[in-house]
């Protein structure tokens, strides 16, 4: 049985889309879209090759994260290893490795790179804290939501990336861990025995190429695979509604503190408790879907 992720994210011309159209069709409806060429207006579009970035940041020491060694119950906070940026760039172009560099505040090391781009005027409310993400071929960022519930604009510079998205209303079917923004499901090898809810989940896929910007609405689940070694940059805008802004504050404070404290006190037992609760929530959601389906079809028969 295949996971339902065949829908492709729509692609529009990012060089001609107006603010009105973007707001009406995608921002207000919170629909993902690939804005092709949105960044052509900035020098970074043609300037930021892997060589250029490698030379600019060569001596910076960076913390790297292993995707295989990460514990699905924990948010990645401590790096697996550290190395010089130029050595890392050589590594990801030369051989497969599972070391990723994510949420890298490049501009702390090289503020002049900020002059190479701006914040596209198709929307407003930007959080002026851009991050870069680097990964080798085959590396995977497991399924998660962004903790601050922002809208994300993810621009790809080098290498292709596959992004699988699920809307936030599918959280229960994806076994969202309570007090957390992660899921333990592996959507590349769906285990329907352990996670029957996956059979009901429905997502969409985008393959980002050089110069593509993916608009990822607030709270969307995303799973990212580097089809080739490469890098991208994300800029964000604040959560679009008051409810989501409050949710972001809750995630970043109460929820995070609780999770850390319980992890420290109970370790593995806390993780098992969260997994069990996620399973119960998924079962409840499956029952709701089945009963809706039954009523819908049952009602039709009665009507005929």
Q: Could you explain the architecture of this structure?
A:
This protein has 304 residues and is an alpha+beta fold. It is built from seven helices and 14 strands. It has helices at residues 19-27, 44-47, 50-57, 85-94, 106-109, 242-266, 268-303, and strands spanning 4-8, 11-13, 33-36, 61-66, 81-84, 99-104, 126-135, 140-144, 151-158, 161-166, 202-208, 212-216, 221-226, 230-237. Strand 2 (11-13), helix 1 (19-27) and strand 3 form a beta-alpha-beta unit.
Distance between the termini: 33 Å
Low-confidence stretches: 300-304
Portion in helices: 25-40%
Radius of gyration: 20 Å
Tally of individual helices: 7
Would you report the number of β strands?
14
Strand order of the largest sheet: 2-3-12-9-14-7-6-4-5
Note the run of SSEs as H and E: EEHEHHEEHEHEEEEEEEEHH
- Form type: globular
Q: What structural class should be given to the helix and strand makeup?
A: alpha+beta
Mean pLDDT: 87
Please give the largest β-sheet: 9 strands, mixed
How would you summarize this macromolecular structure in one to three sentences?
Helix content is 32%, strand content 27%. It is of the alpha+beta class and 304 residues long. Strand 2 (11-13), helix 1 and strand 3 (33-36) form a beta-alpha-beta unit.
